[in-house]
Every structure is written in structure tokens, then in C-alpha cells.
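quick one: pyridoxal-5'-phosphate bound model?
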Amino acid sequence: MTIERRRGEWIVEALAMQLDQPRSGTVTLAQRLYAPLRDWIQRGELTAGEALPSSRRLARALGIGRNTVLAAMDRLVAEGFVEARQGSGLRVAELGPLPVAPPAATAFDAPPLSDRGQRLLDFCAMVSRGHRAFVPGVPALDLLPRERWQRLLRRHRQRSPTDWLDYRSQGGLPALKAALCDYLRLSRSVRCRPEQILITQGAQQGFELIARLLADAGDTAWLEEPGYGGVQACFAMAGLAMQPVPVDAAGLDPERAAGPSPRLIYVTPSHQYPLGVTLSLHRRLALLKAAERHGAWLIEDDYDSEFRYTSAPLASLQGLAEGAPVIYVGTFSKVLYPGLRLGYLVLPEGLVEVFRRANARLHREGQYVVQAALAEFIEAGDFARHVARMRGVYRQRQVWLRQALAPAVVQGLDLSSGHAGMHLVARLDSLDEERRLVEAGDAAGVTLSPLSRYYLGPARQPGLVLGYAGSDEAEIAHAGGWLSRAWLDLQSR
Ligand SMILES: Cc1ncc(COP(=O)(O)O)c(C=O)c1O
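yep, here:
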């Protein structure tokens, strides 16, 4: 028997074994012939120039219709795996060197990321572990006026014009921009016209746009140290040189900034994240001057300014000076819920048009039903009522947390003032103490976010960031009691 004949027999037998396998789903008989042949050719088990058995022989040997065999062969020919040669039937085509398949990844292999992707992972350590006590930044999701919200969504869905189904680039629904503009002018002293507002899918998208549109890779950005990981990640991905500027009791101190002139300066003036201090008026004016001197844009992140407990909410930095180079960033993640994915930028006049166009190009627009519902929620006063109610709830939740931690505080645990916001910071003496408490918390079902993670440079102050807004009385008492005991236990060793 010739080699060609023996190889032909091998192909027939191997195909017969394939057809004996149980048939899965909707795969046709022709596909069950085609797939193994292609696989053998790709793996080099059938080599270039090798003859394939004739369709007549295959049909007879496999007990299937000749048309089925022809359908499989036609596809192999059409895709270039097999050639029809005059007078000598079908032969395996010359494919050249095939790319070597990477080894199959196991669940434990790191995925092959770009350098940029790898760097992003450095900023992804703090993953929210659901609704356990002390996850920072989570509002009281159970207290949202859900029925009213659902009614509004339903009504606006039913009424939605066909326009809302289309591609649009208007920077957000005009009704929402108008409602927001009134709210911001009144409650935050922001200077704006509705047209200056760009609706985004949360503050994070706003930071991304700012970093991409206003700075080039290698440009310097000043950031609060310690500061918000979301912005750090965004600036790192834009290739910016991040210059951490220390925060003290009066907020970020521009006098202590080193290095080249910044293009961007990021601040949380109302309630510094995470330390909780307020940027003093003196520092606000100094920052505005520094931004003008350097030709930099000031990014004012006003993420949770609504929740102040000892005085009325402070006026925004943006509203302090007419024509100041300030981009005001707001979000509904804290006042309503993070899954809403709605935030906004208030842009200086000269940036409005470019940001609107760039946002529509990079991210597209949408969610008009939700935007319309939110506009009515604000106009009808529901938003202001919800904020006022949550202010009372969070003040009370902070009191419960302080009570739960009182035994440790009496023994010297240092807690932040808590005049505003949704979390407290417990300062610790060492990184070792921080690590031990975080690990013990993990095992006990309590999320203790280490303050050291919020630093870009070496952590000067170890501590714990304790979000209380999203936990009820029982959870706070339980988790706070546990933390108090764990801290006291560490001190006694
Ligand atoms: C300082 C700060 N800014 C902004 C945000 C809100 O971001 P987003 O609107 O993307 O949810 C957060 C949320 O955790 C935050 O902590």
C-alpha cells in the first residue's frame, strides 16, 4: 500500500472516530467534518501538498451523503486550507509558518497586559467588597425613595421621544442641565449657565476627559497627598507626571508643591478625600493665584459637599472668582447612588464646545430617560428633600460609630473631626498596626481601608478610612465594637 493510500486510511478512520462522538447542539454533519480537518492542517498533522481522500470515498466509508462531504471540502478550499489541483484532487495548501498558539491561560496566570494596563492594576487594589460595614463612599442605598424614582423612570420611558433613541451630542438633556444649574447656583454658589454643564457617566468620566483634553503625556499634575485613587488612576493612564502635594489641617498647600509647573491641579476643597479637612479661604485664594501663575486648570471635585453637619455647606471654589480657570466636577454617586452613573462638569466658556464634541466622540451620550427623571426629581424638590434627610441620617450614623469606638477613643484612638462627609479616619501609630487590623477585619467581615493606600509616595500617616453612611445602626454597632476591641487588643500586646 502506498504512503498516500495509508495516510488516506488514517484520515478516514480519524474522521469516523470524530463522527462517532456525541453530536452537540446545532452543529451540522458538514461542520463536524470540516472542523477536525482544519484543526489537523493548522496543527501540522496534515502537511502541505498531502492528498485528501476523494469525496466519493469519504462518503462511502463514513456512510454519509456526498453533498455533505463536498460542503465541508468547499469551505476548506474557500478558506485556503485546501487546494483543488487539476488531475490530482484535493491537497493540503501551503500555509507558511503558523503563529504559535500561546499556552492556554489558567485561572492563576496573569493576563498579558500592556505596560499601561499593568500600571492601572496598581490603582485597583481597593475593590469594594459589597455592603459590609465601613466600605467608604457608599451611600444609604436602602433609604432611596425608590417608589417615587421608579414612577418617574416609568413615566419618562413611556413619554420618551424617538430622538432619545438616536446618536446625540448635546452634552446631556437640556432639562437636566437647567435643573442642575439652578441647584448649583443656589446651593453651591457656582457661577454657570446651563450650557456650561456637560453631563457625564459619573465624575470619573469627567476626570478622564480633562486629563485627555487638557494635558499631554509627561505634563505635571498636582494631586492631594493622600488623595483619591480614582483620579490617580486616570492621570496615570494619561501618562501625566503626578506630583503629590501634602495636605495639612487647612488642605493642600501650594507652597509645598515641588517640581515643574503643573498643567492640572486636582483638589477636593469642601471635604478633602480622604482626610476630611476643608480647604481654608486663604489656601483657596493662594491656589487660584498659583493656577493663574502656572497657566494650570484647577479641578474642583465637590463629590460629597452636601453632607456638612456643623455648618451650612461651603461655597464652591469655582464661584470665588469670575473667570477663574476652574472646572467644577460633581457626581450623583453620593447623593443618590453610584450605579446611576451620572455626574457632570461645569466648564469655563472656552472649553464647552470642545468637551461636548470630544465626549460625544469618545464616550457617546445616552440615558436620556434617566436624565429626564432626574431633572424632574430635582425640579420637584425630591432631590433637596432626600439630601436633607440623608444629612440627618449620616450625622446619626456617625454618632453611632463614635459610640461604638468610644472604648478605644478613651484609650487614645485618634479619630478625625467628622464635621462633614460619609466616613471617618482613625489615625494609627504604625503601618504594621494598620496591616494587622486590615487583615483581622478581612477575616471578621469588616472592610478597613488602609489610609496608606491613598498615598502616591511613602505613607506619612497610617490609619483606617471608615465609611459609615451605607451601614445601619446594628451593623455599625457590631463592626465598630469589633474594631474597638481589636485595636485595644493590639495596644495591650
Ligand atoms: C473623591 C471622590 N470623587 C468622586 C467620586 C465619585 O466618582 P463617580 O461619580 O465616578 O462615582 C468619588 C467616589 O468614590 C470620590 O471618592
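The chain has three domains: 3-92, 117-128+144-380, 385-491.
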